[in-house]
């Protein structure tokens, strides 16, 4: 089971599996429903590889502009958002060689995306930070 931590909190439904009583046990001790210990869950919650959200607008732009966003690239964006969050960023432009993403850092949401031709001469407003990614 994977547990994702968001903004320093574990979502309430992340650890929904609860231990069950083992009727065959003489003292009625509980057994975990899967083979994962509490320590494993805690470590997973500390894992900074949170997933990111894509706004409806960003999904449209990524599809319209044929911007690549595979699992590795999503992870790079997630890592960038973690670094930006550590620096106190709120709204940022994350720049790749082939695309740019405007992100809301606290909500870990991609707000919009631009491809390389659209980035030429573009002015980004309402951001407080920028970060470049290298491949």
State the helicity in percent bands.
25-40%
Write down the overall mean pLDDT: 79
Biggest sheet statistics: 5 strands, mixed
Kindly, what is the distance between the CA atoms of the first and last residues, rounded to a whole number of angstroms? Answer: 30 Å
Number of helices: 4
Shape: globular
Radius of gyration: 20 Å
- Largest sheet, order of strands side by side? 3-6-5-4-7
* Beta-strand residue fraction: 15-25%
Oligomeric state of this protein = single chain
Tell me what the structure shows.
By secondary structure, the protein is α/β, with parallel strands linked by helices. It has four helices and seven strands, in the order E-E-H-E-H-H-E-E-E-H-E. The protein has helices spanning about 40-45, 55-65, 70-85, 115-120; strands at about 20, 30, 55, 90-95, 100-105, 110-115, 130. A hairpin with a 3-residue loop joins strand 4 and strand 5 (about 100-105). The chain is globular, with a radius of gyration of 20 Å. The mean pLDDT is about 80.
Using brief descriptors, characterize the structure shown.
135 residues; alpha/beta; 7 strands
Q: How would you sum up this structure in a few lines?
A:
This protein has 135 residues and is α/β, with parallel strands linked by helices.
């Amino acid at each position: 089971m994977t547990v994702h931590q968001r903004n320093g909190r574990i979502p309430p439904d992340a650890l929904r599996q609860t231990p069950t009583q083992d009727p065959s046990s003489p003292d009625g001790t509980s057994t975990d429903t899967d083979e994962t210990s509490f320590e494993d869950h805690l470590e997973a919650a500390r894992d900074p590889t949170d997933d990111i959200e894509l706004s409806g607008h960003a999904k449209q732009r990524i599809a319209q502009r044929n911007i690549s966003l595979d699992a590795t690239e999503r992870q790079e964006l997630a890592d960038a958002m973690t670094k930006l969050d550590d620096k106190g960023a709120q709204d940022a432009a994350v720049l790749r060689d082939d695309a740019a993403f405007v992100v809301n850092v606290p909500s870990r949401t991609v707000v919009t995306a631009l491809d390389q031709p659209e980035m030429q001469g573009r002015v980004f407003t309402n951001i407080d930070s920028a970060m470049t990614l290298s491949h």
